[in-house]
Amino acid sequence: MKKNYLQLPRTSIALSALVFLLVFFFWGCSETETVAPLYNPTFSNASVPEIVSVSPADSAFAGVDEITITGHNFSTNAADIKVYFNGLSAEIKSLDTNRIVLTAPNLALDSIRIKIYKTGLDRFSGIKLYKLISAFVVNNVFKINDTPYALTFDKDGNIYVSMTVNKAGVGIKKILPDGSVKDFAPKGAETFWSCLKFGKSGDLYAARSVKGIFKVAEGATSAVWVSSSNGIGSITDFDFDQNGVMWGGGNNTSVYSITQAKTVKAFPFTGNVRAVRVFNNYLYACGLSGGVESVWRFAITDSSNLGAGELYFDYSAAYPTGTIQAITFSADGDLVLGTDGPEPIIIVKPDRSSQVLFPGVLNTLGKSKLNSLFWGSGAHLFYIRQGIDLTDAATPTEAILKVNTKNTLGGAPYYGLQ
């Protein structure tokens, strides 16, 4: 039997669906729903920081130089502004709405992206490309357990160092300007020399904290030049004046003059002298005297005599850690102290005020110390970096560093090289 089903016209179905949709629509729109906009309607491009220029142009010394950024829409509140160098936030020294002065971060790279963020905005400034240069370079690096001492130069710009390997002496090495290393003199009785300097004759002189001064010829072991029989005490360091007279000191009750005729004179001074330098007719002696780490100064009154000593700079009062290991001068009278403290180099100005050379840059991790230094050509100061704990993986390797002091007048003369 054929069954009959209820059938509705297609038009009725369509009409019913339309009515349902209209009812649903009007019911759903009966209440107003507030939806947060996807943008900030108060935002204006006019408030975004804009970098117009950076000074010095193109590059600066990392961790050293002051950089000035000029532009628009900065702030007078330092808390509102962040300046990033490849994501590293820089230390802001001062700012206003059109100018930011900061210290270059210690990040030496050829291509750095500078950008500025301002609190409350959802975008950075445009990017300015810049270069940060290291204030020093590694001039020479040494193998693990190879340790250099007593850095000096000759007239031709060759470097000389006394070397040990696994704490055993291996003589004096000569480092040519191209970086190649050759043997200069074999080990003699010394383990290492505490001081090496050339005299006017071209001879290389040496001291090692014993009662004597030695001469070292290329290819030969050292020979005694003056000894205790000449009246000399223990000598750790020495320097020459413009007349060729040598001045030296060590852990003694005297400092000494030694003429080329080997005449020795002693002048009373009790202390452990680690470094000496002649400058502008004064002998400067550095070390521990009377319980104070300090620099003493003596007037050179004639060819081989000294006036009374005076305390020139109290290192202990200004810097509570470290001892003075080396000394030199700039041509314009800055006294340069090399130390084994956390900051390797201290500059003492002619008015006797002092400052750290490039704070936090030369010994970033605090795991190295300065052994000796020498002012090379131009603005460049060279010093031996020694690791404090070679078992620590973070300790930097032994090296000779070449530091751009930015003093274009250069160093004071070494009279033995004149």
Structure description:
There is one protein chain. By secondary structure, the chain is mainly β. The chain has two domains: 86 residues, Immunoglobulin-like (Sandwich), CATH 2.60.40; 282 residues, Neuraminidase (6 Propeller), CATH 2.120.10.30. 6% of the residues lie in helices and 50% in strands. The radius of gyration is 35 Å and the shape is elongated. The N terminus is likely disordered.
Short account of what is shown:
By secondary structure, the chain is mainly β.
Helices and strands in order:
Layout: H1 10-28, E1 50-55, E2 59-61, E3 66-72, E4 81-85, E5 88-89, E6 91-96, E7 99-103, E8 109-118, E9 128-133, E10 136-141, E11 146-153, E12 159-165, E13 168-175, E14 181-185, E15 195-198, E16 204-207, E17 210-216, E18 223-227, E19 234-235, E20 237-240, E21 246-249, E22 251-258, E23 264-279, E24 282-289, E25 292-302, E26 305-314, H2 315-318, E27 324-329, E28 335-339, E29 345-348, E30 354-356, E31 368-375, E32 380-387, E33 399-404
Parallel strand pairs: 2-9
Antiparallel strand pairs: 1-3, 3-7, 4-5, 4-8, 6-7, 8-9, 10-33, 11-12, 12-13, 13-14, 15-16, 16-17, 17-18, 17-19, 20-21, 21-22, 22-23, 23-24, 24-25, 25-26, 27-28, 28-29, 29-30, 31-32, 32-33
- The name CATH uses for the topology of the largest domain is Neuraminidase
For the record, the count of structural domains works out to 2
Give the name of the CATH architecture of the largest domain. Answer: 6 Propeller
Helix content range: under 10%
Main sheet makeup: 7 strands, antiparallel
Tell me the span between the first and last alpha carbons.
Answer: 133 Å
CATH superfamily of the largest domain: TolB, C-terminal domain
Number of strands: 33
